[in-house]
Protein 1
Amino acid sequence: MGAIYRREIGAFFTSSIAYVFLAVFYLITGFFFTMDNLAAGSTSLASVFSTMFVISIFLIPILTMRLFSEEKKQRTDQGLLTAPVSLTGIVLGKYFAALTMFLIATAIVFIFGVILSLFGTVAWMTLLSNFLAIVLVGAAFIAVGLFISSLTENQIAAAVASMVVLLMFFLVDTLAARVSMSWLQSLLYDLSFYTRYYEFTCGIFNLSSVLFFISAAVLFNFFTVRVFEKRRWS
Amino acid sequence: MIEVRNLTKHYGDKKAVNDISFTVEDGEILGFLGPNGAGKSTTMNMLTGYISSTSGQALINGVDILEDPIGAKKYIGYLPEIPPLYLDMTVKAYLNFVFDLKKCKLPRRSHMKDVMTLCKIQDVEDRLIRNLSKGYKQRVGLAQALIGNPPVLILDEPTVGLDPKQMVEIRTLIKRLGKNHTVILSSHILSEIQAVCDRVIIINKGVVAADDTATNLSNQVTTDHRVIARIEGEKAAILQAIRGIEGIKYVRADMEREEGIWEYEMEAEPGQDIRRDVNRICRENDWNILLLKTMEMTLEDIFLKITMGEHIDLTAKGGDQ
């Protein structure tokens, strides 16, 4: 797992995906920080965190798209799958590499916090729980992206499909608002990533949501392992 | 040591590999021969745990690849048909990655150096794999398999893409490795198998068509009773004399090789060696024999015959033992 993790981190930087990902992430969050905090004179990072959720939908697929699709295309998966490592080790090595990139990106909020603390009081606990929330959302999204990447040989297909699926997670909310059956509505709200995330940006720390995101991450990583199991046995 | 028992792989209705069994002893080099699509790579992929078998068993040093894949994979160095190279890495970084991936316990520096020297890739260690020639890529692929010094090497067409000089080098290397490794090597180049391997398995349409030493395979279909002779003398008289040999089935003058010297092809009843008879009649008639040999079948002939579906009885062991 360690070897795969280190290789993937290296590959992010040699393939320039890391630079593109980080640059776009910083640019957009920086824009909202400037507009809604510096210009508006607010120390609440809620709008920055809301933005992060939306850009994650589009940027996380960029991180995960080539993780497995490229292996399959270049036939390097044969090297991994015949090495004395477990499938779980392979999947998690890649997963944590992508998660590390996402952590580097989201950690920008601490710099924002420090900048804001020069002008006023920052609610550090809220910031911290917000940060935890976006990391948990990222952890779930990356697992989804990784799973989709394992299904195809084409990076672009993986990226687009991941974006669509992640967008669906986001749009479930809008759908739920229009559903009249109450049981279905509450089910959709329960499954909504954004509703759960939004609570955090309001300063509510909900343990069940933490478990929800972690379960989603575990579930999709498990699916990815199953994809390889199945391919081996078919 | 590798033991394969009744290994079978179905893809849907298609039987890619059908009930293959063989054993490779320690220090033996086994050649896998077969036309494209015969099931060589499928078999190798099953041995290395890349794909599962539909039924049957593969044991690497006594460890079942399906029951304890990680345990079995530790013993194997595998060079797949397309070397699993990360094009965006340097040779050194890649081999270091493989070293870590295999959780290798050997001293890193000296082991890296040994492997790179062995595969002759020290001079490109800092270059990106993307920029290497096919020959170098192939050798990096071989180096990757050798990392960790696994006792079993499975090499799928290791000399593809190499120039003739490199081919010879790699063959020599494999032969040397074969002294203390168990090696399975696939190829469709017959001379390569003949030069390197102790034993040959010919696979055709997913089944073992022949399993023997290269020499034995040739012997089995070698035909003492078919002789080629180049004799100096009058053609008609020679033909006449040969026809007089007991048990001869046919004789013909093939072509005039040198002036007045024809090459004759003759066949007697199976099992009858007529070389002495030919020699005797020449002595009696004062003709000079300039060449006399039995028509040996090369591995190539055997291969072609088997794969073209011609009937050759290879199941009966040859008369060498």
Protein 2
Amino acid sequence: MSDHVDGNALAGDLREIFAVDLTVATGQCAGCGYRGSVASLRVYQNAPGVVARCPHCEEVVLRLVRAPGRAWLDLRGTVSLEIPLQA
Amino acid sequence: MAIVSPGFSGRRQSADVQLPPGQYLTEDFPVLTAGPTPRVPTDRWELTVNTEAGQKYTWSWQQLIELPAEKITTDIHCVTKWSKLGTRWKGVSLDVLLEEVETAADFALVQSYGGYTTNLPLEDLLDGQAWIAYRYDDDDITPEHGGPARLLVPHLYFWKSAKWVRGIQLLLEDEPGFWETAGYHDYGDPWREQRYQGD
């Protein structure tokens, strides 16, 4: 059994914080520059928080920790997120 | 009538046990990981202590296992709320490893193969409170549980007991680690339920 699932697993948590579904956004990894959809990230969720890693270099691009009544989102491993919007 | 002492069962009964607040008892050993599991052969493994003055101390695997070791039986408490009682380990006390290390540091940043880090006050690594463990339940520690060697600091939440330990940076100033920079408590005392920042 794989030890990770794909970035679609982030949909529920991210939708609560951002009004749009960020899994369709295109992110750029701060480690290697790889660009890909948030849905293509490798997500490790058997952990104290959710850790999403670059599918190219395995560096951490996103971390999300949930506590009762609050959440922390760490995007230091992401250069940018390109978010599609309705024209 | 024979008197049966629960002490002979080899395992404490759960009714006798007081757990830290918010914890539940588990009999298995859940595997938590924030990334791919590093697999480090012991002939390439080393442990390094770097001081705040730039001095470097290194132990090979062979040097580690030749040091005086202790057997430790201890309860462990994960911040995800499971606790496991009476876990049995073997390892080298940090008192032994740091005995010859000259430092004025008050803090430590523990570093792992795979990039994980966690921080704690140096005093929490000393006085019989922390070990570099390399045996669990009379066996080698599996990679999934942090082998070949992991830090064991059981008086703090188990995220402080870094798997795949490869180094300790001694510091004059506190430097938060992987989970401590993402909302988790800087110290992590389970008995004071210090799970998240501000707890």
Protein 3
Amino acid sequence: MPTLPARFKLAFENFALDVDLQLPSTGVTVLFGPSGSGKTTLLRCIAGLEKAPVGYFEIKGQCWQDSTKKHFIPTHQRNLGYVFQEANLFPHLSVMGNLQFGVKRQTYSTVNSSDFQEIIDLLGIEHLLNRKPDRLSGGEKQRVVIARAILLKPDLLLMDEPLAALDQQRKQEILPFLIRLHQHLSIPVIYVTHSQAEVAQLADTLVVMQAGKVVAHGNLTDTFNRIDLPFAQDKGASSVWQGTLSSHETNYHLSCVAINDNALSLPLITAPIGTNLRIQIYARDVSITLAAPAATSILNILPAVVKEIKADNKGQCTVFLKVGQQTLLAHITQKSAQLLNLRPELAVYVQIKGTSLLG
Amino acid sequence: MLSPADLDTLWLTFKVASLSTFLLLLIGTPVAWWLARTQSPAKGFINALVSLPLVLPPTVLGFYLLILMGPNGALGKITNTLGLGTLSFTFAGLVIASVLYSLPFVVQPLQTAFNGIAQQTIEAAATLRASPLNTFLSVVLPLSKSGFLTAGILGFTHTVGEFGVVLMIGGNIPDKTRVVSVQIYNHVEALEYTQAHWLAGCLLAFSFSVLLVLYTVLKTPPQVQQLK
């Protein structure tokens, strides 16, 4: 699979960005990290909104920047879509005018009326077309902004915390649109966020950044479940597994999801057999036993091997386990860890009390 | 009633003010845009320079311009070499002086309007294929319409009202540099109070109606500081 090479070095007064990445040319790559870690700066460098003195970016055989050759294509000549954190619609234009703004300026636009209708339907904004931006809610504005960007049929879609300015309710309103959008688009998407929930729901590839540098980079399930990253210690820490819907037990209202050699029972999922699913398991919902429990109400019990244990200073510890090929995080008390004498390479069983389905 | 000479001064004033306003918008727009967007250390210096006519006595500005445009001044030498003669006591000289004198009244409202446009809006236009010039024409201009209207009106009215600078560099030459404010002064000097009343009344009515339009039609009327 071809990759998008992205190398940038840029120094501000009290911050320096230094990355050298090969980004995947399909799916959603999430840039994750605390504020000030350089995610947005990296995105702006890719878009050309920031001109890094040392930089290289190439997509579809087209070089957008090569500082060694003093080559720099200005933003307006790059075939990209950009969604800013604040929905910045042009206030003097209607929603329709905003949607057409970019299309009208493209030297070669391939958008026809059926594409237009499809995107408008996808984002549910048909009823807003004649309104002025000041008559839209925050969530509606953000949907129009996203439509405006993808109408350009860009080679690359860049999204800078598109949900951060919205309240929880609006976020829940937009997330399904984003998930649908990402299934619908065949172009690479680079998505900046500091929200774990968005990472778990949207990412295919995860890039974790800290202080201007990339500290981890890989596919979602491997990277997200790592114990050494900031996710693991978090109260809401979780692991994400990819699986396939394998069967239904309709009389119990349960569905069975195959994850490599293992299987999980989940509340009934209304989707055809064979559907790919993403499952989130909170570390606090995982408990550990030394022997297979004989009589328990918990359905999901899987054999596992302890790989690493990391204690905090509040009596809790994070246990990193391998369940077949999958990695899993568990939060237990330090007392339990001691009583069970947990140590690396110990074979145990994990009981998973609850799971949630993503996307 | 207004005498033919009075009408001439009114017409001349209108010509000076219109041409000056046109030039002011032409020069003031890039200056204001630069001031609104730049992070250059020269910003403070340029800002102070542009705002100088707000606080400088018009006679001081007029005096320096007189020297500059005179046969021994830098500008005078250039115009002389070009075969244009000296600019003092000419219509062209009057227009140049008016532009300098009214510059802050045009630059400041424009700068305020440009400052109100978020950097992100400009960047959004760039990500939507708009070149910098296209962004200026299709996003910045429509969003700063009221700023341009304010700038144009303030530039025009302020030029109409100038007196000190005109006296210093333009003098009192009929049809060339004798503008309304100078004519009123002439009438008063000659104790022609009726004539002075007519002209003064015209200016009063004009100025008030302009401000009335400014404050009732525009959503964001100019600040006192811009009006001085």
Protein 4
Amino acid sequence: MSAVQKTSESGLTPAAAPPNDSPLVKAAQGGDMRAFEELVARHRDKIYARAFSMMRNEQDAIDLSQEAWVKAWQRLAQFQGDSSFATWLTRIVINLCLDQLRKHKRHRAESIEEMDEESGGVERQMPVVTINPTAGLERGELRQRIDRALGQLSASHRTVIVLHEFEEMEYKEIAKTMGCSIGTVMSRLFYARRRMASLLADLKKAES
Amino acid sequence: MNTELQLKLQSYVDGELSASESRQIADLLARDAEAAALVQQLQNTKSAFANGELEVKLPESREFYWSKISREIERENRQPVAAAEPSLSLWQSLQRLLIPAGAFAALTLIGLVGLFALRTTNQDSFSVHYESDNAVADADAFTYNDEENGTTFIWFSYPSENEFTESDDSLIL
């Protein structure tokens, strides 16, 4: 509540401030389903978007985001407010997506290309291009290109990028979340970035 | 450039190195053009991500999306016991296995004891007849005991010393 008042006093629009979820969370922790429904309404797009960025499939993203909300309701008592409610919920949906991706991986045989990608493949040896392939792009266009390039990465590399660049997790936290070593995280991140640079350069070439 | 250095340069870009390691890399970049070019590329990619993600909207109405969540919550609330079942402890799992096995073992034991008791009874009844058959202690005599009428018949295969009649070879006691 005080955060909203301060932004109003500073002359900024109240819409720029993140919504204060605390009263709704407390009410929901007391069993108020209407308060929980309001929380769903506030954050449903963000939670769905995170699931979609990891799964790249609309139906999977809808199902997993809904499952995350159900789990959140069941575990509301565990939420102590150490992070924001949105961050806490995002962690739940990320874990559900990772579980789902692991199941997918178990069910399909890995291709040679995927194994090559896992180890870094030819991308590790490719020459460095210092020209910025995204320079001068309007923000909306840049986001679209990044999204298209992300769609061409394997799930494990895309996940590392999402967790590091968008969720702003450190290597150690990513390793814990993904259940792998820090070295693997660093290796995957390095490969994913170089691949992204290559894909963005290709998109720039195609445009010109 | 080896992999170790590549990953160290990336850690430098991400601010994951200690202060002393960062200074070492800064010194390296001043004299190694290849390393500097790689750092530049990693920074370009990183700054592209800093522009944020493509905005994605949930392709379902608020009501429809919520209705599925609330239905699932209500279903879970109705079946708390069923939901708890999959998380059985090791002891509970063992109990599930041991109870029917124990019951089977007990039934088998009862069956064996019963069979043994039956055989013993048969042997006892045989020994009664046997005793009955040998009550006279004469290998050439055969005895029939009718408990209902309180009568015992003994047949001798040879003539008795005090015969009542010559034709009758049985003695009524």
